[in-house]
Each structure stands twice: as C-alpha cells, then as structure tokens.
C-alpha cells in the first residue's frame, strides 16, 4: 500500500474515533431518591447505598456530599447527574437536591409536574 494511502487511512480512522468519543467522570447511581428522608436518613445509610461521595464540601459551616455522574461528548449533547446532601449537625440529611439532564430522568421529573 502506498505510504500516502496508509497515512490517510490512519488519520481517517483516528478522526472518526476521536470525533465520536465521550468521556465520563464519577460513577452511575440510582435516580430514585424516594428513600432519602430529611432529618431521618443518616450518613452511614447513604454510604451503604451510594458508597463514597464524588466530592465533599461545606455550606454554612455544615458538610456537603456530592454524588456525580458526568458524561461529556465532543460532539452532541453532554449529560450530568448530581445528588447533593446538606448534612445537619446530627449527621442526618438536613436537605438534599437532585439534578439530571439524562433523558430518562428529565422525562420522569417532568411527568411529576
């Protein structure tokens, strides 16, 4: 095979693979948050169900845990899913938020309106 055709073929294959690739960060977790009860669900229960958080932080002096799953695409729509816990002083859930742009989640959340 002539050298030009070989190089062109390799470049074409690389371009196709690169342009259709995606990168994920975090790990998938269930979208059902009905088991979470403010003032009742504890940090230990969350750890048993979801494992270690993706990120930790602080809000008004209280700890926060974030579980995240991020799927980025070079071309096309990227998706995010985040579950954030705001802990009270007794290590129970003070409040929480769930956000997602994954189609299955947005369809379920929109149908609850």
Cα end-to-end separation: 62 Å
The beta-strand count equals: 5
- Rg over alpha carbons: 21 Å
Helix content: 25-40%
Mean pLDDT: 87
Could you describe the largest sheet, including whether it forms a barrel?
5 strands, antiparallel
Indicate the CATH architecture. Answer: 2-Layer Sandwich
Order of helices and strands: HEHEEEEH
Alpha-beta classification: alpha+beta
CATH topology assignment: Beta-lactamase Inhibitory Protein, Chain:B, domain 1
Strand content: 25-35%
CATH class: Alpha Beta
- Segments where pLDDT lies below 50 for 5+ residues? none
- Please, how many helices? 3
Q: What is the subunit organization of this protein?
A: single chain
Instruction: Specify the overall morphology.
Output: elongated
Q: How many domains, as an integer?
A: 1
Structure, described:
- The chain has 113 residues and is α+β, with helices and mostly antiparallel strands.
- It has one domain: Beta-lactamase Inhibitory Protein, Chain:B, domain 1 (2-Layer Sandwich), CATH 3.30.1450.
- It contains three helices and five strands.
- The chain has helices spanning 3-19, 43-50, 103-111, and strands at 22-26, 55-59, 62-73, 79-87, 93-100.
- Strands 1, 2, 3, 4 and 5 form a five-stranded antiparallel β-sheet that branches.
- Strand 2 (55-59) and strand 3 form a beta hairpin.
